[in-house]
Amino acid sequence: MTRARGTLLLVWLAVWCLLAAPASAVPVQDIGVMTTTDLVALQPSVSGAQVTVVGEAIGDALRAGPDHVFVNLLQDSTAIGVWMPREESDRIGGFGDYHTTGAELRVTGIVNVACPQHGGDFDIHAEEISIVRGARARPTEPVRWRFGAAFGALVLAAGQLMVYRWYRRKRFEL
Amino acid sequence: MWVPFRFSDVKVVLHYLGALLIGVALTMSVPLAVAIALREWAPALDYLIGIGVAGFAGSTLMLFHVDGTGINRRQALVVTGLVWLVGSLAAAVPLSLSGNYATYLDALFDAMSGLTTSGLTVVLDLDHMASSHQVWRHLLHLLGGQGIVVAALSFAVARRGGAFALYAAEGRDERILPNVVHTTRFIWFVTAVWVVLGVVALGSAMLWLGMGFKNAVVHGFCMTVAAYDTGGFGPQSQNALYYHSGLLESLLMFLMLAGTMNFGLHADVFRGDPKEMWKNLETRVLAVNIAILSAFTAGAVYLWGVLDTTNSGFRKAVFHVVSAHSGTGHQTVYPTQWFPTLGGAAVAGIMLAMAAGGAVSSTAGGIKALRIGVIVQSIIQSAKQALAPDSAVIRSKFHHIVDKTMTSDVVSASMTVFIMYTVTYITGGLIGMAYGYRAGDSLFESISAAANVGLSTGITSASMPAGMKVLYIVQMWAGRLEFLALLVLVAAVLVSLPRRRRGRP
User: Fold this and answer.
1) Which of A111, B98, B181, B187 lies 20 to 30 Å (CA to CA) from residue A173?
2) pLDDT tens digits for A93-113?
3) Do B49 and A164 touch (CB under 8 A)?
4) In chain A, whose CA is at the least distance from the CA of B94?
5) Would the ipTM clear 0.90, i.e. be above it?
């Protein structure tokens, strides 16, 4: 290979790198549907990727800027904050707590393992939100045997306390 | 000479444990009232059962010593050693009935974690837990943080003799007011002021964030108590990350720092003498340690972490160093995020902060800033002595509430506690490794349990082996008692065993 050809090849490689590098960095990797537990376990390799998660909206919609809120989405035992426009959160009928199973949402958005916009928090910036299932009441009725157990325990405690007080009074009288 | 415990000693110990159990039963009326107010009928029954069980057990134990006469120092140490376990056993009853715990051992784990203001948790489905159970878990922080014995002294046991024996046995040595009972009531007064201020501040911030009134009040109370009592429980599974709010993190840091201060210093501030804060060796050590570790951790996050901006890294570093150093355990990262996101060096900084701990006579755990200050000053004194002429005698003083001379007794006491904590941290880490956990995670979790912090790398969960749960229960218990009362308890049992059992003829 002559010196001129070698130089030409090097210039061509340099130009190729300059053109190709940004092109390979721009597209957002789509990692499809994932559970929130897997998402948290996989970080930081998932940062910046597009993901779809399905989970229950819990707690409250929390203010995060003038027209956005954070809604925490629970799946299995892991909850993740989803940053979304306020009007989207207004569509959520109910949030999960002791009395309620919150609405189930399907959210597609960008994962931020350490979001620079939100103090380094792990969050998802929502791009598409749909409600899979509405909120519903959770069964919270007391189990019947516990009425008896509570009554029995209180009677025993009150009885034993009376025995103690009677015995104590008797000892001091002597 | 080892003096064995007689049956008469045992009867006095059982009587006082019974009285403290009655106190636990009475305290359960608070979550019961919350359950009724919020129409949580199943939890209301759980608390009625809890009151019945604790009340019956307490009354039965009190029958062992009906006269209820005074308690001596030895008996008080054993009562203090046992009260955390007995209190946890009773406090776990309603929790175990809540449906949020896989077994009674798990409920006991959380009750011990609550009372010792540790904050490690094995709860299931926390995001759907009843508000009354949330209040009870956090009330345990308040009871344990202010000192369960202090609580009892203020109300029930105070009228009998031996109040100071119980007070001192709990590891408190400051006499803010001449009378112990007045001192304990003063501690409650200071706490009440901070809790009211905290609930108003956090509750207002939560309302501004858009939370409903009920949630703002319940979360405001829970987070205030968890921060001020350096506990670390939270009403949601994401802990402080749930709120995604810098304002809330700032308020929590303020409360955590207030909670980690010595009650004697709080008293000075209330009396209008804030200068004592700056003169005190302990406050200076805390300030220097927090500043150095925050700078180190922030630098390490910047160099080796994946946080994108300096601002994010600094915010995470300072919040977690304050949370760790104060012994609180609030966190804004997921347990599995520590090493991959912040980097190993930053996690080492957090571990050092956890191990060091807060102030003596506060709700914080760990080695404590005063002891670290004393040890550092004694090292400097030794270096000065080595360089001084043979005839010179080097003496140094330090200021903690009053001016004190650095004696060998003071240094020795600090070194003993330092060594015991260090051995406990390492032993717990090694046992965790033996169970198959990674060395870094295992040491982190062990320090967190023994220093009553509550930060977690994810080892602590309902699915961890029962042996690990028992290990952390013992570590939290021993760490809260600073070992002395627990060692006295073990020694009392051993020397009181019949001689034949100890292998003697």
Assistant:
1) B181
2) 899 999 999 999 999 999 998
3) no
4) A150
5) no
